[in-house]
Amino acid sequence: MKLKKWTVATLLAACLLGTAACGNDQGTSDSSKAAGDAAAEGVKKVGVLQLVAHASLDASYEGFLEGLAENGYPEDKIQLDYQNAQNDQANLKSMSEKLVKAKPDVLLAIATPAAQALVNETKDLPITVTAVTDLVGAKLVADNEKPGGNVTGTTDWAPVEKQIELLLSIIPDAKTVGIAYNAGETNSKIQADAAEAALKKAGVKAKVLTANTTNDVQQVMTSLAKDADGIYIPTDNTFATAAPVVGDVAKQTKTPVVTGSVEQVDGGALATYGIDYKSLGKLTGKMAAEILDGKAKPADMPIQSAEDFTLVVNEDMAAALGIDKDSIKQPE
What we know:
Layout: E1 3-4, H1 9-16, H2 18-21, E2 28-30, E3 44-50, H3 55-70, E4 78-84, H4 89-101, E5 106-110, H5 112-121, E6 127-132, E7 151-155, H6 160-170, E8 176-181, H7 186-201, E9 205-210, H8 217-227, E10 230-233, H9 237-241, H10 243-253, E11 257-259, H11 262-267, E12 271-274, H12 277-292, E13 304-305, E14 310-314, H13 315-321
Helix pairs in contact: 1-3, 3-12, 4-5, 6-7, 8-10
């Protein structure tokens, strides 16, 4: 698949994190790096809890490791315990218990449910988070500028208004735009509400449908495609996991789809002006390194956000939809 993009994060993530992507329904665990000498001089214990395997979250994890490495903690300086819950609540509970029991020097939670699971297990061990949209709303921190507890990290708040602007520039005569997400994901609902408000401001009707699981994605997409001129999907874990299904329906129905993240476009959407999750994870890794160095504590570390957004166009999808890829421009 050809992509008009200025980053190769998704391809690198797919190569490096194949193990995570191949997890089963019971979740996956990789404690190979933790099997070394626990008393090794200068080695820090790092625990990671990831909600589910898909391109965006995998890229966050890869970026986190790069951020650690670039700030003094390469692989030979950490003992890594990686847990992937494969979107199962019971796994989140048991894996967070396991990670906290090991008393790591720092924890990483990837996605809101993973962060909430770890916070429920410890109010003392330092936790960094990434791929979380609203840390205050999720009750992870008291304030974005001064978190005040044992949690800090990065937010994946996307430029929703600009993404809607991008979609409407592709379909300027649109009367109705579909919005698809999992209502059980707090992050997704926040973005979906913002998208609906942006459409209302533009005088375009919004039709909203939600999916409870990946099994519902095809039905939701097909139903929206019948009534909508285009579809918007926020940075939703359920739809990101089912990205190939999204792409198949889009091609069959000739429906332009704009998504919240770069990696979702690689999976089958048409375009986005969105977040590079690898870069976001890298920033989180830098923050974790500062905690490991003893230079900062989560309570005093402001929540960080993406500094740059990227226009990404899936050229194969554009061709399949009969859209000139060069006509898709970055929002102003």
